[in-house]
Amino acid sequence: METILTVQHLTKKFGFLTAVKDLSFTIEKGNVYGILGPNGSGKSTTLGIILNVVNRTSGSFCWFEGNTSTHEALKKVGAIIERPNFYPYMTAVQNLKLVCKIKEVPETKIEEKLELVGLLDRKDSKFRTYSLGMKQRLAIASALLNDPEILILDEPTNGLDPQGIHQIREIIKKIAAKGTTILLASHLLDEVEKVCSHVVILRKGEKLYSGPVDGMMASHGFFELRTTAMDKLRELLEKSASFGKITQENGTLTAYLKEEMQAEELNKMLYDKGLVLSHLVKRKESLEEQFLTLTKNN
Ligand code: ADP
Ligand code: MG
């Protein structure tokens, strides 16, 4: 696997405040990463550091396995970390031509990128006539002009209406499907769930989890159970080493697994002990519930 970025023990202090604390993670080519955390958890600071616009306090980061200087490496990075800003009285195409000059890339890329973000039919409209969603899409087109190895987006759907949010997410998926690595910061769990393959979860600058989005959901889950003999059921489960916390509410018992167990297995075990269930459902905690559990108590 090709490593795009390695971040090691990164710390950023603003005076007494530690915005990012001993943060380590790696970004492999072809994946879509989310940095997920509530407001103020250090997402933008982290992006600022790896893009060389914020100075780190300690720790290190390294682009493309360290074979190029950060300055050279950043030429292969497309990033949108601020509100899109173009010349209001110039059209989309005119604005992108200017970007091509600055980035020293051929203007032939313009139509391809406008097509990708769904703005080809509005290419000759002035920037000031664009909606916020269109502005954001133009910024994405602009960031892609030099076919970067990785696209970095900070809260790409902030402030957009539901349709605008949907369009941006679909575009991100399309870009990812073409093989471009993506790193996006978001405080929205469902955004990360919908768009990302991997996630780094931050709380107050500290990493709580990093790994596949699927992996987060792979807690062992829990059973919801009902029977006429609830006391006996509870007794049996409390004796079993497979279960941790057991709660009871409204005639339903919830038993959390400490290890993997299928519903069939539990059903058979209870039946063999003379207990018949009237209700048996196995559930996994959603990423959302886990995220809320991880981020509360701050
Ligand atoms: P996020 O992007 O996750 O909302 P930020 O990285 O913007 O979080 O901020 C992390 C913390 O650092 C916050 O407490 C914020 O107030 C603080 N912070 C960010 N930038 C500065 C700065 N330039 N000066 C002082 N404090 C800052
Ligand atoms: Mg931010």
From TrEMBL:
Q: PROSITE patterns, per this entry?
A: ABC_TRANSPORTER_1, ABC_TRANSPORTER_2
Sorted alphabetically, which InterPro entries does this protein's record hold? AAA+_ATPase, ABC_transporter-like_ATP-bd, ABC_transporter-like_CS, P-loop_NTPase
One GO MF term: ATP binding
Record bears the keyword Nucleotide-binding: yes
A Pfam family: ABC_tran
Q: Which UniProt keywords apply?
A: ATP-binding, Nucleotide-binding, Transport
Family membership, please give it: Belongs to the ABC transporter superfamily.
Q: Which PANTHER family match?
A: ABC TRANSPORTER, ATP-BINDING PROTEIN
**Annotated protein name in UniProt:** ATP-binding cassette domain-containing protein
